[in-house]
C-alpha cells in the first residue's frame, strides 16, 4: 500500500487540493498561487508521511511533523479558521483511505484493520501538531495585537502627538464610557463567576466590533470602562444602537455616555463621557446611551458649587415627612399629572392635592408657579447629590 500511494503522491495531491476547493468554502477564496504552491506541497508531504506510517508501522516522527506545524502557523497568520484547517486534514485522510481500500476483499480484513489503526495514529499526530502550532501562532499574534491596542489607547488618552503618529489612529472615534450590570452567572463561586465575566466581556467586544471596519479599542473590566469605536468616514454609528446591541449580547443592562472626537480630542471626550455616565447613574436614568445634552441640568448641578447645597436645602422642611418629598418628586416626574402621580403612589388624587398643599406651605415653593417649578426641579436634583 505504501508503494502504491508513493507512486501516485504527486497526482493525488493535486486532486486532493481540488477536493478541498470543492468541499471547504474558505479554500475557494485562497489565491491560486497559494493553492498550486504551498497547499499542494504540504498535501503531498502529508501523503508521503502516510506512506512512511504504512511502511514502518508507526506514527509520524516529530521531524516529519515539522512542515505540518510550519504550514499551520502560516494558515494562522492568514487567518484561515482552525476548523477549516482541521476539516482539510480529516477530509484528506478519509479521501485517501477510501481509495486505498477500494479494492480490498474479505481476505484483506486483517491488513485493513492494521491500516485503519495506522490512519488513526496519523490523524491523531497531525491534529495535535496542527492545533498546537496554530494556537501558539494565534496567541503570539493576539499578544502583538493587544500590545498595539494598549499602545494606541495610551497614545489617544495621553494626547501625545508623537505617540499618536506612531500608532496611526482613525480619523475620529466614538468615545463611550460604559457601565455593565452584573450577570447572574457572575455570582457563582470561582472559577465559574470569573469565567462568566470574561464571557460577558467577549460578547460585548464582539457586538461593538460589528459596528466598525477597524479594530475597536477597549479598556474594560466586568463592570465597564472605555470603548473607542473608530469612525472611518461619514457619520458615526448611532450610540443608542451600539449600546442596545451590547446589552443584548451581555444579557444585562448597559449604561453608556458617548462623545465623538478626533484623535487630539479623545482625552477631553473620555473625561466628559465618564462624567456624563456618572451623572446618568447618580440620577437614576434607565439603561441606554446618553450625551451631555441629555443631562445638562444634572451635569451642571454636579459641578463643585456652594449653590448645590443651597438648592438642596430648599427642601429641608420636608425631611421630617418623607411622603411629602416623595409626592413632590413623583408629581414632577409625571409632568404635573396628579392622577398619574396618585396611581404611582397608590393613593387617592385628593391625597396628592393635600400633600402638595402641605409641601407648599412648608417650603414656600409652589409647582403651579413656572418660576418656582424650576427651583423645585433643581432642588430635587441637588438633593440627590447632597449627603444625608
TrEMBL record:
Span of domain PucR C-terminal helix-turn-helix: 324-382
Domain spans labelled RsbT co-antagonist protein RsbRD N-terminal: 11-148
Pfam families for this protein: HTH_30, RsbRD_N
Name of this chain's protein: Transcriptional regulator
